[in-house]
């Protein structure tokens, strides 16, 4: 299946989820992440959810990570295809970007080579660990700068697509895991 077809399909499916249901599913996702062997790592990069796009709410996961004394790192878009990463602290001021993404105004920058685990936003994924995002390439560019050992975890309300994503590009970065409310996929 082509990425553009999947983007359309899953954008519509997510739009049909009520805010209350999204909140419940996001909590289940956060609890399911406890099954993945990542708890000996220190730096966890996580996207901040775009509420208007019915994304997985990452706040329960952020609370879980902070409760386990992990360093939580959040992105800020700085150019047409790159992001900087900032430590999320009690003093971090957030401001919505033009795309509606909450981003840090400033703070303590964390280089890519320190990041151990990345929670990756997505619209869809297949059983091979290929993912479909919004198509801007921010996360693929970022993940290609991270160490090869960095663990990449997708978060999805929906299960893996049965059909393989056919238009995977050579710069697309595969997931190591994807967590849904029903299952933890390992690739």
Automatic annotation (TrEMBL):
What EC number(s) has UniProt assigned to this enzyme? 6.3.3.2
Pfam families named in the record? 5-FTHF_cyc-lig (PF01812)
Name this polypeptide is given: 5-formyltetrahydrofolate cyclo-ligase
Top-level lineage group: Bacteria
Supply the InterPro entries for this chain.
FTHF_cligase, FTHF_cligase-like_sf, NagB/RpiA_transferase-like
Gene3D superfamilies in the cross-refs: NagB/RpiA/CoA transferase-like
SUPFAM superfamilies given in the database record: NagB/RpiA/CoA transferase-like
- Which protein family is it in? Belongs to the 5-formyltetrahydrofolate cyclo-ligase family.
Q: Keywords of this protein's UniProt record, alphabetized?
A: ATP-binding, Ligase, Magnesium, Metal-binding, Nucleotide-binding
List the source organism: Flagellimonas halotolerans
Cofactor(s) in the UniProt record: Mg(2+)
Show the GO MF annotations: 5-formyltetrahydrofolate cyclo-ligase activity
Record's signal peptide: none
Q: Catalytic activity, per the record?
A: (6S)-5-formyl-5,6,7,8-tetrahydrofolate + ATP = (6R)-5,10-methenyltetrahydrofolate + ADP + phosphate
